Amino acid sequence: MKKRNPHPMQQIIFDDHNVARFRENAIVRYLLDSGPFDMNTIAFMPGISAEDRSQFAQLIGYSVSGFGDLNYCDRDQLRDADAEVARMLAAEKQSNDKAD
Questions:
Q1: pLDDT one-digit tens code per residue, 44-61
Q2: 74 DSSP 8-state letter
Q3: Domain boundaries, given as residue ranges, for the chain
């Protein structure tokens, strides 16, 4: 049996362009943007688990659709994220239908 990712899935939000994204952590984003490391450097660091890379992608606000393209993406979390996006879209549609 596959073990579950030890990290929680980040909340999903829609950005200003209506793209479903994981809610970024402002501190993590600041450290990435201002530090000596970029995504390519981090990608080749030894000793970092796929679970940690997957969590990092969420913490920097990766899009849910782009998350699925990452080779270290946690497939269980992707399935959960896709289901959450579908739930959010259905709720928005229902809300819009009631407003009409």
A1: 889 999 899 999 999 999
A2: -
A3: 12-99
Note the pTM of the prediction, 2 decimals. Answer: 0.86
- The DSSP letter of residue 44 is T
What is the DSSP pairing of strand 20-22 with strand 12-14?
A: antiparallel
Q: Which residues contact 82 (CB under 8 A, 6 or more apart)?
A: 64, 68
- The Cβ of residue 59 has, within 10 Å, a number of other Cβ atoms equal to 20
Mark the ranges of the chain whose per-residue pLDDT is less than 50. Answer: none
**Residues near 24 by Cβ (< 8 Å), separated by ≥ 6?**
10, 59, 60, 61
Please report, for residues 1, 18, 21, 63, the alpha-carbon distance to residue 14 in angstroms, rounded to integers and kept in the order given.
Answer: 33, 5, 6, 9
Q: How distant, in Å, are the alpha carbons of 32, 52, 91 from that of 86?
A: 30, 25, 9
**pLDDT number for residue 87:** 97
Using CA atoms, how far residue 5 sits from 9, 31, 52, 76, 93, in Å, is: 9, 24, 9, 8, 31
